[in-house]
Amino acid sequence: MTVIEMTGITKSYGDVRALDTLDLVVARGEIVALLGPNGAGKTTAFEVLLGLVRPTAGHVRVLGAEPGTLPGRIGAMLQAAGLPEQVTVRELVRLIGRSYPRALPVAEVLHRTSLTTRAGRTVTALSGGERQRLLLALALVGAPELLLLDEPTAAMDVASRRSFWRQARASVADGATVLFATHDLTEAEAVADRVVVLAGGRVRADAPPAQLTGERDIEDVFLALTEEISTAHEGADR
Fold first, then answer.
1. Are 97 and 104 a contacting pair, CB within 8 Å?
2. Using CA atoms, how far apart are residues 129 and 164, in angstroms rounded to an integer?
3. Residues 140-185: tens digit of each pLDDT
4. Torsional class of 200: left (φ above 0), alpha (ψ -120 to 50), beta (otherwise)
5. Distance between CA atoms of 197 and 217, rounded to whole angstroms?
6. Domains of the chain
7. Beta bridge partners of 202
8. pTM
């Protein structure tokens, strides 16, 4: 089953084209990395998928429906997500869970995200990595079919990253699909079933990590795929 289908998606902000005829298909049960430098269009793609912005052109379906019409079936972590600071971790997870038709037990979500010992703390008392785990807990509590994760492991140390991805894979084992945006080459190679390289709002490559890299280092592949776009943009500015 196709969970995400984006065909010819363009999104312009005045003279700036954040997405340029973007094509992307994600099947159920996949973990797909959207890899690209800052300004590649990753966050805009997520906003389109969530129905937060409308594309200028193109066709998009999420779980077979218009974006933004199935909030109970989608969990999301966004870079700009704000959190109320004076509530506790447990209270916030419980509150968000009430908005879903089939929420997971709060204790289970806290355990899965390694937040059980932080359950009574307020958001202001959390470290950067703990706040990221809380955002994951809020994305997971509704038992979503699709997880959209925008730079989800920012501010996490190595141990927290490993724990995070164990929980994400557990969600996939339970039937979820994961699309995550990152500019971390190593993370994309280690975690994803497929890596989609985005630059200048367009897909430059879409393949399993091993097929994408072959005998080359993923950093060399990434630079080769994105350098052409950067050079073209520099030339257009002259």
1. yes
2. 10
3. 999 999 999 998 887 778 888 888 888 888 888 888 999 999 888 8
4. left
5. 15
6. 2-237 (3.40.50.300)
7. 199
8. 0.86
